[in-house]
Amino acid sequence: MWLPREHRVGGRAKFFRINLYHDNLSNYYKTNFALMQHHKYSLTELDNMMPWEREIYVTMLAQHLEEEKQRMEQQAANNKR
Questions:
Q1: Residue spans per domain, the chain
Q2: Are 70 and 63 in contact (CB under 8 A)?
């Protein structure tokens, strides 16, 4: 059952503030800059993402970069032999 607006507490905005408390403004701008410079996202694309969607993409990108780093280290070790 839907409650009248005056009975709701916080709504979606409060939900995202609570769930994304670990992200600060400095980190937000640094991440945006890195995504725009190194991975060719536009600021509009980043601003239009839902906070949870952005978190998923950043996590997936971090995993991909870690896998690439490990692959390159393994390839370098194989070339030294």
A1: 24-80
A2: no
For residue 50, CA distances in Å to 2, 74, 81 come to 23, 36, 47
42 pLDDT tier (thresholds 50, 70, 90):
very high
Q: Angle at Cα 39 formed by Cα 33 and Cα 43, nearest 5°?
A: 45
* Furthest C-alpha separation in the chain: 71
> What's the rounded Cα separation, in Å, for the pair 69 and 52?
26
Interval 44-69: pLDDT, tens: 999 999 988 988 998 999 999 999 99
Please provide the distance, in angstroms rounded to a whole number, between the alpha carbons at the two ends of the chain: 68
> What gap in Å lies between CA 24 and CA 53, rounded to an integer?
17
